Amino acid sequence: MSGVTESGAVESGAVESDVVRGRSLGRRFEWLWAAYAVSTFGTRLAFDAFPLIAVMVLDAGPARVAALAATGLAVGAVVAVPLGPWVEFRRKRPVMVAMDLVRCAVLLSVPLAYAFGRLGFAQLLVVSVVVAAADITFRSAAGSCLKALVRPKDLLRANGRFESTTWTAAMLGPPVGGAAIGLFGPVVTVAADAVSYLLSALGIRAIGGGEPRPPRTEASRLRAGDLLDGWRYVLASPALRPLFLNTVLVNGLIMATAPLLAVLMLGDLGFAPWQYSLAFAVPCLGGLVGSRLAGPLVARFGEHRVLVTSGVLRVCWPVALAFVGPGTGGLVLVMVVEFGLITSVGVYNPVYATRRLELTPVERVARTLSAWTVSGKLTTAALTAVWGLLAGLTGTRTAVALAGALLLATPLLLPRRTRTPAPAPVQQTTDG
Q1: What DSSP character marks residue 419?
Q2: Residue 2 Cα distances to 14, 16, 131, 152, 153, angstroms
Q3: What is the pTM of this model?
């Protein structure tokens, strides 16, 4: 019987045989996956919809557009802080359905207000905050749900499917959404995103089967100190702490340069918008490749080696973006760099997500994932603001180069050796 080795790596026989046979993960997981797919495609379809609405409908300037993006991300993360501990002691699927319905309702308010001529900038701010907080809450509950639905040895395959879906949506969603905006107006993709959350809620409801209510004790009552429990657990864990620090910092530095690259390519270098979109859409194929390779690579080389190697490879590429030039050569350079980066990320993400669930006891998953996601969003918002100021002082290329150079140092935060997973009971359910 295969399982997890003492080093924490998944035994090759378990992963390899499952990958070769393509064994189903069960009907109930398929419903969870379908719900994730439809909401992810809806979100990517509405990519940058709020900034476009702010500019095209409300005549907002650059400062207000930047404030819209930063406020939604940062305030939404702060609002979500108490929700992680709250989710921990409730059934997870009802929470996920509720968060989908909340996102559907607030997003639908945008096209409705637009239709009646009542849409304002303040409403966009409120909606972005509510959606961000609901997204974090949904993710914290979804991790516990996945761990209950899928056997431990199948977690990597499940996370690989989510990763491949993410990159497929990233590749197809924005071009389709841009065409829809051109044909039907700036709020149509927001309405489509709202409908996708409604369909996601229906998919989660269709999972069926019983879900035990987490036991309520005096210790499970929410207290002020519990708000930081997720961070305390992560930072006290010698296995989770390096993963946490590495992923939060790497993701933040990569995302901080995204606005700068837009300014560099669309402004200084004179690329057309369609060329800019193409440069970042085509490399998403690398995410599909990487997510498909993750399982076979772990089967052959072990979880820890793949985690560290892909973690190093994913930060070797961005520094080259500081040397992008005009014309076809510059476009090709961006595509090559982004393809290498996204392929490495496609391998790393499902392996690290699986490792995180393996190392987190089931009764702490929601708080841990909530703290992790809140930290990631706040770090990204802060670094994006800092790098915007840095670009104003030193120039866009210098700021991009500095982010790339700092990324090269982040592998020092990766785990140096494989840790033994924390013993924890795993809730198991059978397909109905």
Answers
A1: P
A2: 5, 11, 41, 11, 8
A3: 0.81
